[in-house]
Amino acid sequence: MVITRRISIQTKGHSELIDITQGVAQEVSGSGLSDGTVTIFISGSTAAVSTIEYEPGLLNDFQDMWDRLVPLNITYQHDRAWGDGNGYSHVRASLLGPSITIPFTNGRMTLGRWQQIVVVDFDNRPRLREIVLQVVGQ
Amino acid sequence: MVITRRISIQTKGHSELIDITQGVAQEVSGSGLSDGTVTIFISGSTAAVSTIEYEPGLLNDFQDMWDRLVPLNITYQHDRAWGDGNGYSHVRASLLGPSITIPFTNGRMTLGRWQQIVVVDFDNRPRLREIVLQVVGQ
Amino acid sequence: MVITRRISIQTKGHSELIDITQGVAQEVSGSGLSDGTVTIFISGSTAAVSTIEYEPGLLNDFQDMWDRLVPLNITYQHDRAWGDGNGYSHVRASLLGPSITIPFTNGRMTLGRWQQIVVVDFDNRPRLREIVLQVVGQ
Question: pTM above 0.80?
C-alpha cells in the first residue's frame, strides 16, 4: 500500500534547519501501516533533506561547514544570469540531496535516539515549503 | 507492484550533468501505476544522481564546487595504484551518492517546477551509462 | 511485501569504511523476493551509508577528502557544549546521509561490478552499529 502525506512548513531560509521528526512520525503512525519505508522528499531546488542530532551547537557547526564549502562571497554564474543571489543555495541543495528513505517497523521509524529528520532551507529568503512523505508498506 | 526500467545514456564524462527528467517521467507514466516511488540508481562507482535547476549558470557553479572540494591536481592513492587518473571521480561519486527516491501521485512525480533529475558522470572519459529505475507502487 | 533485516557490525570509528555488500546481498537473496528495492539505513547520527569501489587507495582518498572538508582541528560548537570531541563526526554524517536505496531484480542488486556498499563510521571511537535493511518487493 502507498499513502501520500504532505507537511507544510514556513522557513526563514539562509540554511536554516527545521526538525520535522514529529510530523513524520505522526504520519507514519497514522498511516495504519505496520512495516515499510517512508520517503521524505523536498519539492524544490534550493532545499534538501538529511538527519542530524538537533542541538544548537551542531546546527552552528553544520552552517559553518556550508560557509566553508559553498561560500556566499564568491561568484556564481547563476547569479550573473538570473540576479536572484541564491546560486550558492542551489549548489548546496544539489550536494546534500532532495530525498532520504527511512524504514519503519511496528509503525515506528528506525531512527537512532539522537537522530532527527531535518529539512535544510538553503534559499536566501523565507519560503513556504512542502515536504512530500511517501509511505510504502503493509 | 514493482516495475523495472532502464535508461541508457552516452556521456562525455568530466563531471557532465545529464538531465534525465523526461525519460524518468515517461517510464513512471508508462508504468500504469498511480501512486508510489521511483528509485533512480546508477550502476557504477564514478557517477552519481541528484536534482538541480538545469540551467547553464548552475551547471558551471556545480562544476566549480567539485573543483574546489575534490580537485584534480592533488595526489590520489587510487591513481598511484591503478593509473586510471580518475581517483577524484570515485571520491566525488561517493560523496554525492548513487541513488535518489522520488514520490509520484496520479502518475506524476512530485518534483518542483525548476527541479530536474540529473546523472553526474564524474569519470575522466566518455561512458555509456545505464540508470536503473525501480518503480514501486499501486 | 516488506521484509526487515538487520546487520550488526563492530567498527573502529575514525571514518572507517566497512564493506557490507555481501551481507546485504545475502539478505536480499534470502528474502525470497524477486524484484524490489532494499533501503540501507543507519540508525545513529555519526555514521552514514554510500557506495564506493572498495580498494585501499580509494579508502585513503575518501578519508583525505573528509579531512580537507570537515577537519578535526577546527572549533566545533558541539564539542564546546558536550565535550564528546566528535562534532566533526556529526557534520560529516549529515553531509553524506543516512540512507541509500538499491533496486534488485531476480534476487540480485543492480550494483556495478566495482561498486560496493559501505557504512562509514565517523565517530571518534569504536562502535557497535546496527544497519537496518528494508526489503520492499514482490
Answer: yes
The pair phi, psi for residue B108, each rounded to 5°, is -125, 135
At B51, list the grid cell: 536534482
Assess B65–C contact: CB distance below 8 Å, yes or no.
Answer: no
- What is the third-level CATH fold of C2-137? Jelly Rolls (2.60.120)
Sheet holding A116-121, edge to edge: A16-19, A116-121, A47-52
Q: What are the C-alpha distances in Å from C97 to residues A101, C50, C113?
A: 10, 8, 23
* Cα end-to-end distance, chain C, whole Å: 6
Tens digit of each residue's pLDDT (9 = 90 or more) over B28-48: 999 999 999 999 999 999 999
Chains that touch A (3 or more CB pairs under 8 A): B, C
In this complex, do C55 and B41 lie within 8 Å of one another by their Cβ atoms?
Answer: no
Determine whether the interchain pair A78/B68 forms a contact, defined as Cβ–Cβ distance below 8 Å. Answer: no
- Those chains having 3 or more beta-carbon pairs within 8 angstroms of chain C are A, B
| ipTM of predicted assembly, 2 dp | 0.97
CA B6 to CA C112: how far, in whole Å? Answer: 14
Query: How far is B50 from B17, CA to CA, in rounded Å?
Result: 10
Grid coordinates representing C72? 578535526
The domain locations on chain B are 2-137
Q: Which residues of C touch B134 (CB under 8 A)?
A: 35-37, 103
